[in-house]
Design goal:
The protein is of the alpha/beta class. It is about 35% helix and about 15% strand. It is built from 6 helices and 5 strands. A 3-stranded parallel beta sheet has the order 4-3-5, sandwiched between helices. α5 links the parallel β3 and β4. The chain is globular and about 45 Å long. The model has no long low-confidence stretch (mean pLDDT about 85).
Length: about 160
Amino acid sequence: MVFEELGFTYLGPVDGHSIPELTAVLRQAKQLAEPVLIHCLTEKGRGYLPALRQPDQYHSASPFMVETGERIEGDVCRRTFTQVFGESLVSLAEQDDKLVAITAAMLDATGLKDFARCFPKRIYDVGIAEAHMMTFAAGLAAGGLKPVVAGCGGT
């Protein structure tokens, strides 16, 4: 109820590992004309034994053999998730001037470097303040913007 009291529509919790559930909740959120908080439950390394045994090695994993978890050396990865995320966000921002991005001192690591270059007035770096980042995003959303929070670790 706390999110509703703050003017948010709360959707969740949702299984963050279920593509059908995530797709359904994102479609539902897209239809709403007010701030939405989607609560996803995920488990790091869920079901993948190498990641469960060594979670620190899979936080931001380089290419590896899925069957064994063994790292692949060399330049075999065409594009990283971070690169795709950053490119996609720039593309979306070109279509929607209400889209803004927020990071907590992780501009490069979250893929927002190009976004910052393309939209310097629509990027916010709150420093090492993840809790503030979330409340700041809530305020921006309440003001009619569409914040995308890009954080690492628990954010």
